[in-house]
Amino acid sequence: MSLPKVFAIADQAIVDPITIVPELCTGCNLCLHVCPVDLFLPNHDKGGPPHVLYPGECWYEGSCVDVCPEPGAIRLNRPPAMRVNWKTRAALGPSNG
């Protein structure tokens, strides 16, 4: 009896919790100052995006995204268990509400 093949695809949040888009990042380094776990390291090039030093230490609390002046420059990739699937009240139907 042969066992079925199982394929696992790594979730992006597990591999890389923080994604910094270099084209959008201005290098202001505000994210360095608000991160509670000192995840970021300043770039030695002035105006360059910070380096994500310890991605495994991320708490996924999102202050880096909130403080960033450039929308979309920092993307927080939460693990599936931390994601919320919001639904509108209308989508729930008339009996729920």
For the structure shown, list the relevant keywords.
97 residues; two-stranded antiparallel sheet; 4 strands
SSE class: alpha+beta
- Helical residue percent band: 10-25%
Can you list the strand order of the major beta sheet? Answer: 1-4
Shape assignment: extended
Rg (CA only): 18 Å
Low-confidence stretches: none
Number of strands: 4
Tell me about the largest β-sheet.
Answer: 2 strands, antiparallel
Which H/E pattern describes the elements?
HEHEEHEH
Number of helices: 4
Report the span from N to C terminus: 52 Å
Strand content: 5-15%
pLDDT averaged over residues: 84
Characterization of the model:
- The protein has helices at residues 12-15, 30-34, 63-67, 89-92, and strands spanning 18-20, 40-41, 51-52, 74-76.
- The longest helix is centred in the first third of the chain and has 5 residues, at 30-34.
- 19% of the residues lie in helices and 10% in strands.
- It contains four helices and four strands, in the order αβαββαβα.
- It has a two-stranded antiparallel ribbon with strand order 1-4.
- The chain is extended, with a radius of gyration of 18 Å.
- With 97 residues, the chain is of the alpha+beta class.
Q: In short, what is this structure?
A:
With 97 residues, this protein is an alpha+beta fold. It has helices spanning 12-15, 30-34, 63-67, 89-92, and strands at 18-20, 40-41, 51-52, 74-76.
Task: Set out the fold topology.
Elements: H1 12-15, E1 18-20, H2 30-34, E2 40-41, E3 51-52, H3 63-67, E4 74-76, H4 89-92
Antiparallel strand pairs: 1-4, 2-3
